[in-house]
Amino acid sequence: MSQGRSFRINLPTLFEQVNARRKEQGLASVEPAVMAVRASIKFAINRQRYMDLQSTEIDLEKTDADALCHALGELFNVDLHLDGDAREDKAAASAPTATGAEDAPRILPMFQFYAAINRQRRAKGLQPVEPAVISVHTGIKFSIMRRRALNFREDKLILSDGDLAALDEIVAQQFDVVIPGGLRSLCQAVAEAAPASAAPGAEAGTDGKRFLGRLLHGIKTKGEPGMHTRHYALDINNLLLSIITRRAYLGHRPITPDKVKKRCREALSAELELEVDLNDERITLTPEQLDRFANLIRKEFEIMFEDMGDLLGRKTKT
Amino acid sequence: MKEAPEYQHGQAFLGGLNHVYHCNHYNAHLQMTVMLADGVEGGFDPRRLLRDGAAQVVQALKTRGYAPQDLRDEFTWCGFGYIKDVTADQVELPGSHYGQSTYLLGVPEKSCFFNVGFLQGMTGRTTSETACRHMKARTDVFDFGPPASAPDNPFVNPPPFTPVPGRFAFQGCEIASTPVDEDRIVATVATLPLYGRPPSESGDGLIPAFGVVLTNHYADYYNLISYQTYGHMVHAGVPAEMAREAFVQCGHVCAFNTFGGIMESPEFHALVVPMCQDVADWIHGMVAVINALGWGAWRVERIVPGHELIIRIYNSYEGVGYRRLHPAATEKQLSFLAMGAVRGLAHLFWKIDIRERPGLSQDYYFNVFNSHQGYWNVEQTHAIAAGDGFDRIVAWK
Questions:
Q1: Which residues constitute the domain of residue B49?
Q2: Of A169, B36, B170, B324, which has the highest C-beta tally within 10 A?
Q3: What is the pLDDT of residues A233-258, one digit of tens each?
């Protein structure tokens, strides 16, 4: 698994590119040393392995390069991609070997993991299991089976095919259910899940390939010429009502609609750097923003739902 | 019953062993957590540990002079069910806490390990479970084989009991008074019929109470299986905080269901609620009830409603039990049940509000805890296991 291409990455250049993209977005530059430390921590959490990002150059396997790009993207709100075309091979430190979509690392959104397990348990007439228990039991079994630890409390995990096969086994053993199509069916290719990525259509079929290589050739942001980005409109009153209702159902203390609005506005501003007026009837978000907003709502209001359509009791419309 | 229960140091004793009340949820989750260690390394078999731990406890009772009938009586009185002879080589448990009241989240298997160990210790014969309710059997059946070797005595140290200070009479206590009369509550709870009745008294050996099914279990059994499993997990490379959290969750599910069930009960509303003026009083009331469970002497150090709850435990069954089994620990966070229980207590007041009697159920539990968000943090700062004079649990949000 994952003994495909390796890459030699010039870190100062990489950090310069991150800052260049931030500048284009009107964001402040980040000190490279800070970037290195924070990315090291994020990388260590995701990959359970320390990587020294203070040096000038590092050689990375494809999986690790993906994880590094993802960490930088998440931390610094930029869109990093490594291209999968012939040019990247020239930059590889070792001769590339064939790497298909089959063994590309995949991102498993954890809320889908919990939802899928409990959906299957309900279908089987079994009680659902609280996500905290699922994550700890899965984490322990994973550590024992794979001899490395992952934090299953993360919002999402980057996993190899071997990891996913082990998880399928763990789910069957520990929670007495089988996920139709396996957990792989819940995963996104790393490129699809990269923050602020391009339009969904542009990613279709690339299955991780696009993610490789662009690190050496520039950074892509949304709005790239020739790409159409689909937007979704959220009805604010419906959103507020859904959050309040779901909290009430769960026995949480009541929050006024004004407070819900305020907390949504603050979260959108702080986490997505998105200033919206929640006094409008509706707001328009990209799919990426919508997913991240859903995550913010889950955290901020302590509620669980699969996606915005689930929260709002219907599918969102374009 | 061969011996009457005794109460000292904040603990309850029967046959010289500390007994603690715990619910079916705790017993189910603790067993599942131990079983998670399957495969950690060669030679460690969690199912065998679950069985042998029970046999070791029974061996301690036999050493004290318990005869087989004494053990049967205690098995029933403690709420484990009752044993019915089928043949000279077989018994069944028509009433069975582990068979009827516990559960597995994973693939079903014969999982009355405690019963197997108890029966093996009692008879001195190798015992196996041949039918189990978890596998849809009508009842739990156990077959006896050739003689089994007597289990080792696991207790290597005397229990390090310490004097228990008055309710608010310890350095660092930030609470001066409460209208809640703890002595009255403890005395009243002690009169509740929380024991299993045999068939001769129209019972099935189970203790249904407060919406859960209780056992008056052997603290040493819990400590034996918990700390050995935790040690093996960590040794095998499972991060300590992850392994710990699995055990803490057992305490949490126990606290939320049992404490919650108690606080919703008519008995609590008749006895304790009239003494309460605010949420702090409710906590003092619930802690008074806990002090009748045999878990040690709980003392409330600090309450900041919605933000922080600090509990000290003198002679905690986990801390004292750990020291009976092991040398002093080098880590503090070992009172797993207590950590989960304090977190659960905080959740009962500040994640939901149990005073409004929301009506606890498994569905309700899942709905409240259907997300990682909003859990209180919990940390143990002092540990009897590590040589401190008390356990101190801090929960905060």
A1: 6-147
A2: B36
A3: 788 888 888 888 888 777 677 788 88
